[in-house]
Amino acid sequence: MYLSDVLNIKGWHTVTTGKDVTITAAVKTMCDNHVGAIVVTGSKGMIAGILTERDILRRYAEHGAALGKMSVAEIMTRNVETTGPDARVEEVLGTMTRKRFRHMPVLRDGEFVGVVSIGDLVKAMLQEKTQEAESLRQYIVT
Ligand code: AMP
């Protein structure tokens, strides 16, 4: 199974924010779009960073309420790992587990086309394995 299969079900949605946006505004965008991570775009729509719930929680512990007025650029992760729609689900789950993050932006021909979370991938794998088990059961019974 490939990331394109997961995105065909989940939808090829992208939620982005700018580097100069305040954390308060970015949190509102994340909540409005029901996402736990947001890709930060820079000049010409290039990916400049990623901001996740975990970043916000950690930085809140450091800065308290002042965090709300800080900019996205101040706390985002800059070296964003991305992948393509042709990557295999198992491979991406392995990368996420090894590198300890739960979101992966997907780029097609350099264009940002979607994000998969570890939850999306575990759900897709579980569905695939359940269907495989059911097919095998039918095969044995018939
Ligand atoms: P997460 O588990 O996705 O909430 O992220 C844990 C940490 O990794 C946070 O500091 C994120 O900004 C960062 N992070 C999340 N996704 C990626 C990614 N695809 N590439 C690089 N860093 C990431």
Topology record:
Layout: H1 3-10, E1 16-18, H2 23-32, E2 37-41, E3 47-52, H3 53-63, H4 72-75, H5 89-99, E4 103-108, E5 111-117, H6 118-141
Parallel strand pairs: 1-2
Antiparallel strand pairs: 2-3, 4-5
Helix pairs in contact: 5-6
Adenosine monophosphate (AMP) is lined by residues 37, 50, 52-55, 77, 80-81, 101-104.
Keywords:
binds adenosine monophosphate; 5 strands; 3-stranded mixed beta sheet; CBS-domain; single chain; 142 residues; 6 helices; alpha+beta; two-stranded antiparallel ribbon
> Low-confidence segments, ≥5 residues, pLDDT <50?
none
Total E-strand runs: 5
Distance between the termini: 27 Å
So what's the overall shape?
Answer: elongated
> What is the typical, i.e. mean, pLDDT?
96
Summed up, the helix count is 6
Share in β-strands: 15-25%
Query: C-alpha Rg, in Å?
Result: 18 Å
CATH superfamily: CBS-domain
**How would you characterize the largest beta sheet?**
3 strands, mixed
Helical amount:
40-55%
Order of SSEs, N→C? HEHEEHHHEEH
CATH structural architecture: Roll
Structural description of this entry:
By secondary structure, the protein is of the alpha+beta class. It has one domain: CBS-domain, CATH 3.10.580.10. The protein is built from six helices and five strands, in the order αβαββαααββα. It has helices at residues 3-10, 23-32, 53-63, 72-75, 89-99, 118-141, and strands at 16-18, 37-41, 47-52, 103-108, 111-117. The strands form two sheets. Strands 1-2-3 form a three-stranded mixed sheet. Strands 4-5 form a two-stranded antiparallel ribbon. β4 and β5 form a beta hairpin. α5 crosses α6 (118-141). The longest helix has 24 residues, at 118-141. It is elongated, with a radius of gyration of 18 Å. The two termini are 27 Å apart. Bound molecules: adenosine monophosphate. The site of adenosine monophosphate has 13 residues, from β3, α3 and β4.
